[in-house]
Write the structure tokens for this entry.
Amino acid sequence: MDAAKNKTANEPQANGNDYLWDGSGAPDPEIRKLEALLGEFRHDRPAPPFPEMVLSRGWTLFPLRMRLFPVLAATAAALLAVAAIVFPRQGTQPPPVAVAGWEVSRRAGTPQIGSTAIHANERPSRFGLGQVLETDAQSRASLQAEDVGRIEIEPNSRVRVLTMGQGLKRIALDRGKISAFIWSPPGQFVVDTPSATTVDLGCAYTLQVDDSGNGLVRTSLGWVGFKLNGHESFIPAGAACATRPKVGPGTPYFEDASAEFRAALARFDFDDSTAEQRSAELAIVLAHSRKGDALTLWHLLARVDQGQRGLVYDRLYRLVPAPASVTKEGILRLDQPMLDLWWNALGFEDISIWRHWERSWSGDTSGATSGTPATGR
Amino acid sequence: MASRSGDNVDLLAAGLGRQPVSDPLAREISDDATLVRAAQAGDRAAFGRLYERYARLIHGVLLAKVPVGAADDLVQDVFLRALRRLSTLRESGSFGAWLAAIARNLANDYHRRSLPEEPLADDATEHRVSHEEARVQTRTAEDASSAAAILDAIRSLPDAYRETLILRLVEGLTGPEIAARTGLTHGSVRVNLHRGMEQLRAKLSPPQAAVSQKRRRCNGRGEE
């Protein structure tokens, strides 16, 4: 590798002439060589024969059902007759009915569901509505649901299942840490913590809650929405957001922001300070903000006092100019469509995804099987 | 995500500002939604088209986590699992991101099942031997060794970088294609590519420098 050209090769081009990005411009010999060498590992298998589709709606099978109905009915009658004879004699319990829930696997130590310990070499257990899963300092567990995703439960954690239905899946993290990798559609997986509610928007993230109820979410893929009492935060990949009981989510930030920026932001969000102190913290945040911190400044627009909003607007505008249809007056009065347009210009994800799913999880839980109600929400 | 100092302010800034997806890619995503809906209705040919379109993406995602031979096999498993769950996919336009999530999940399962864990570092070499006859005959041993070493170096990078780099350098997808098929923003992909490339260079450079030094010493010359 030619170290001498690293400096220029590492800088992304705004457009065109960026061979690494889109193959445009003069081919970079170093990258061409890598492509040639690594090309041997490229996928080149043809599509395998896939089995017949299993349709989600059964109506197309209806005629077949009709034809088979007499046979099936006779078979069912015979089975019922056998069961009526055999079960009373054996005095056995009917087999357990499978219920919707999570499959729990032990990762280390002895996690517990209620008072039942999960030991090594046991088959995965079910973790359903109203149950509590706890890990101690030595134990870890993993939850998996076919249509939702997988959640790693770290030591010293306590998790409950709140709802588990066809639509919304909701758990509570009372304390500890989870790493969630979710493949269900955006907005369907929700985690309640003592200080906020997280809504998965298609992502991987970690969420931790300490014994005081303070929380921290870190997103590694996709993005997460955070909400409490109408206080929203959107956390894209690479960003983090702290939460505090009775306060809710703080302002999201990228973890590579300067130490001064992050410290002042934390004080601004959570310290019980005077208006003057908050103004001073805001000034530090604005002074240390970079383009990458547009994420934070956009959130601050709705969190600062009316008198400070213009300062935030000006700084954010210098970092990432607002779209032409967004006016300063509109932003100062917190016009939601304009705020959303500016968010979309920041280049993260389209905020309409959140607007769509936010309504569906907060306003309508039909289809979900309710368990213990979410506390304090 | 590890905290980083402000060394990449400009890189991050490059990710800001949504960039329009080029027309062919926009059409492709639109076509995907149509194909997904057709596949959900039971059209196997439509699912086959989706396979052709996304197999390289899925192979790349898998290759970032599992041995080469296993990645080839798991590609089919990913699509079979997707086929079974296709009715649960509500956002047909996010098929690629959904499929990639299934692939990452299967790759993690692979490691859980494989105890003791198969070291990735040796994998590329094994693959090279077992598939040698099928590979290009004119490739030199030095090239083969380099390919294995480079793949291992990429797979030692952080997740986001290794996946994006493999999609670009191994599977031959461009940045806009990676963004369109994974659902990531252009900015994220661009930053991952450049930061990943930077780290890859750092990993590959020292050994070469050492070789050059050794050559200089052996040749008794002051320059290469």
In short: The mean pLDDT of chain A is 76. Chain A touches chain B through 66 residues (CB under 8 Å). Residues 195 and 246 of chain A are 7 Å apart (CA to CA).
